Queue: 4 jobs
Job 1
Amino acid sequence: MRTVLNLKQQPRQEDSLRSLYLPALSLALTLLPAGFAPAHAAVAIQHTAPLEVAREAYLMGTILQVKVWARDAEAGFGAIEAALGEVRRIDEMLSSWRADSELSRLNAAIPGATVELSAELFALLGEVRAWAEASGGAFDPALGPLIDIWDLRGPGRRPSQSEIARAVAASGLDGFEFDESLERVVRLRPDVWLTAGGFGKGVALRAARAALKEAGISSAFLDFGGQILAIGAPEGQASWAVGVAHPGQRQRCVAELRLSQSSAATSAASERFIEVGGTRFGHLLDPRTGWPVPAWGSVTVVAEDPLLADMASTTLFVLGPEVGLRWAEARADLGVLFIEYGGDGLVANWNGAMRPWLSRSELLAASLRDNREGRDSIRTCVTEQHMP
């Protein structure tokens, strides 16, 4: 059983931006693992006991594919519906594209006014704040002013350096004051707002995993716009085989991972971008400089916690392959694979924690050499689309 790792897609507005994504989604559908049905359909395939059940749905601005092994069709479909319900609930809490979400209510608060949050969202923002601090500023979801001046949710524009400087000053989690005792937040600056683009999918997958566990599922595979969650393994096998895409050639794979009880997320800047005056700018922003991160390649992170994998892949892409690899070497809880454009092809580097997940590592160098000559030595894969 093999599948391919789409580089993760950040949430987007379902209606006004739908046409931008149709080609990529059509390509992804042609490459689904065996057993997946057309969009919004469900199927059960009897091959051995237990039963394999699969479904996909359009949620949080992308396609979520779910496959489970259950004792019967009713149990499988019930478990999948419970997981999808949790993802919908997380979207209702975190989406900054919809005005009725809890996060949007915080974003729209009058500066100085106190906002009472649910215990769940307050605790989640505490995790995000702790990660942002550990990242040294490379990860910060309070990027609203920068998203606005680059018009990343529209056709795009190139701001002046003075505009960027002002937006950097206006951005950041220090634009919110958190009262730990009362679980209340005060928005301090009028322009600052939070986006869940760097952590929302991880939160949703974590909630979906809990729902599947509650339903008694011990073997499942979820692909959520390119972020993978592997629970157990396919029936009769030890792990899930997942291909990692070439950072700039969406139909080529340059590595294979073997995943079980883990999540994998890949970040790059090659597919979603704005083009202004003939220059392309990616949608991943460096909070420290206010500029889009150059398309240097890609980074894939494997972690037990889907939220950790989601936040870490964004952070490490911002840090870049050299600084990021040094940072990752100290993390035993994160497997990290960097695929970097070199002088005559691609260069791969990974930390020690990635080695157990990296399948057939001896083929990786051969794959990179083959890609220099326009060949694919592993298999076809699809790639990412990023939205803020």
Job 2
Amino acid sequence: MNLTRFLILKRFHFLFLLFLLPFLLPAQSNTDFWFAAPEITSGHGDQPIYFRLTSFSQTANVTISEPANTMANFPPIMVTILANSTFTVDLTSRKSKVECTPPNTTLNLGLLIHSTVPITAYYEEAHMNNPEIFTLKGKNAMGTSFFIPSQ
């Protein structure tokens, strides 16, 4: 095989992989997400807090619950997200039942977001002085070793 043909074939494989890669890596869309909300410094403002949920081509029925915490009186939140739209769930009134405090303590405050079809989700602390956004990864974040991008 001559060098020119080899380089063309190599370039073809690269382009094929480049176009195929987005279909192999579904990013953060999923039907189940687990999240433990951190306690954010209240001195700079730490509310309102939201879940932002986005559907794709199908209507999604979503349930947000706290399965391990039977003592917190956290009734499940059930919402319907129309196809190709975003829905905001305001968790501010449940902040004491959602945020993991005190620090360095094992708690049972993990939130489960379950959807009937794949969605994307993120948690947002939306105070203008101290905003934070946490993108939820679903099964892509399962494991024992991962990096958290932050300041």
Job 3
Amino acid sequence: MRQIRFQILALFCSIHLSGQNGSYEFEQISSDAGITFNAISCIVEDKHGFIWFGGNNGLYYYNTSDIIKYSFDPQKEDTPPSNKIIDLYRDRDGTIWVCT
């Protein structure tokens, strides 16, 4: 009886595992995109799946096709208060917090 239960459990596990598709695609981001990789101090993923990088040279946003750099500009209100990003944090609501 115990062996039959084990065989049924093994059957369900094998069906579940064989149904998963393992196709992944990896892409390498080069420094030609404008990121100084040795200066990156933190990385976070937002609620839409996009990647944010923070470092000594500013804040970077990567949306799988473009890299956008956000730098401190005293003339604009919607820029980071400093180019030196110490940490990035995503809270429960999905808001990204930038620590400078």
Job 4
Amino acid sequence: RPTHPPKDSLESRHGSTVNLCPRNLADHNVKIFVGVEGVHDMSFMKGISRVLIDAGENVADLDKLELDGKLVFIPLGGSNLTLWASRLSPFNRPEFHICDRDNRPPAYPKYQDHINTINNRNNCIALATNKRELENYVHHEAIVEAYAEQNIEINFTGPFDAFDDVPTLTAQAVHAVTGDKPWADLKAEQQRKKESGAKRQINNIAVSKMTVARLAETDPDNEIRSWLASISNMIAAVDS
């Protein structure tokens, strides 16, 4: 009969379980919790750190930190933000939360209240992306190359806007060359499925096609490097 992890635990992608009961946390080597909105954002962060490392930059290797049990990703999800904010606070570990902005300025980020709550706690940092979401930091040419590997030829006329819905635009572009009916004729569920597939492709395959030069175009303010530096500094503070 299948078994399930304990209520207060997280099962990592390599099969081990990190117990989230404060009295047992000392049995593990967790240095930091990194909160993101979902599993695709986890893939993005690990993938983009690998791109920078392979380019010779000294940034946090998020994939290795996770495998070593030093970093635990928390997929917050929109409806789970308040839940995780309260559940993580007793563990006495630094937290670094990245939330999608979603809203174009001058409107506040969608999850500004959550950001304020986290930033009011000791050793915790929360912020919103300057752009709509993490997919907006992936270069359009990297997305085109990712699909070309699957013999799907799509094209974008230029860079994405900071608040374009990149997964939807990508799904529409793919559907235009592979579908048998107009996008508008698809049911909402079919559109969502295609958008989900685009998010998976962007955050896994297309991110691996990123380069330092491409990142300079999509992230001229070095937001991503600053996030990785904060994670490294917070881990170093635990070790000091």
